[in-house]
Amino acid sequence: MSFQLICFYAFAAIAVGAALAVVTVKNPVHAALSLVLTFFTTACVWLLADAEFLAIALVLVYVGAVMVLFLFVVMMLDLDLEPLREGFIRALPFGVIVAVVMLAEMLALIGVRSMDIVAPADPAAAAGLSNVEWLATALFSEFLLPFEVAALILTVGIIAAVPLTLRHRKGVKAQDPARQVRVDPRDRIRVVKMAAETSAVQNGTLPNQESSAP
After folding, report:
1. Separation between Cα atoms, residue 64 and residue 51, nearest integer Å
2. Is the pLDDT of residue 122 over 60?
3. Which of 4, 46, 132, 157 could form a disulfide linkage to 55, CB 3.0–4.6 angstroms apart?
4. Could you tell me if residue 208 is inside a domain?
5. Is 75:24 a contact under the CB 8 Å cutoff?
6. Residue 11 lies in a domain
7. Are residues 67 and 5 in the same domain?
8. Are 41 and 9 in contact (CB under 8 A)?
């Protein structure tokens, strides 16, 4: 057994254990950290498969951005997820059945015999380039238009997700940019002129004080 195969089995075992911890631990912060470990270990497995670009993207995008955002949201909102996890044991048998059916469908779709097919030669190695360099060359030369269209679709999806998820609730302060643009300074500030009055203290007399004659 080679050292690469030993590392693969070790990383795979850690990834499976961390993935199980995501859905079994009670603390949401621990679950988020377990998911970070799952992503990072999966990136290590992809490195063993000479998929450097996927490994780097998984670490930078998911571990470095998405999961950190999830962790901050969970810590700031202080969500009570205990009621959601109470029915986990009751739903476990149904989840196992669904997983077995999905595995059977995947094996039927791919075919068990296809596992014996020899993988084709790596085009990056054939071109004498690294995986990242070959993928970048292919994206920005042969597949530039689909790459730009995919980027445009993702940008539109991000922008559309903001107004779709916006909810106005009673008792919660929210900004209305359209109303802020239409504001008129003359409606926000009003200058009131009032006549000046001299108080009794400045006149030398106090309220409810009777003047006595000498």
Report:
1. 19
2. yes
3. 46
4. no
5. no
6. yes
7. yes
8. no
Indicate whether 3 and 68 sit together in one domain. yes
C-alpha span between 29 and 68 (Å, rounded): 11
What pLDDT, on the 0 to 100 scale, is given for residue 101?
A: 93
Contact partners, residue 127, CB within 8 Å, separation at least 6: 134
Instruction: Give tens-digit pLDDT for 49-101.
Output: 878 888 888 888 888 877 777 777 777 766 666 666 666 677 778 888 998 99
Q: Do residues 97 and 159 share a domain?
A: no
Query: Average pLDDT, whole number, for the chain?
Result: 78
The answer to whether the pTM exceeds 0.70 is no
Structural domain for 130, as ranges: 122-164
Q: How high is the pLDDT of residue 88?
A: 67
Closest C-alpha to 200, from 189, 190, 211, 214:
211
Query: Domain with 53 in it: what CATH number?
Result: 1.20.120.1200
Percent of the chain with pLDDT over 70: 80
- Total domains in the chain come to 3
Distance from C-alpha of 46 to C-alpha of 25, rounded to nearest angstrom: 26
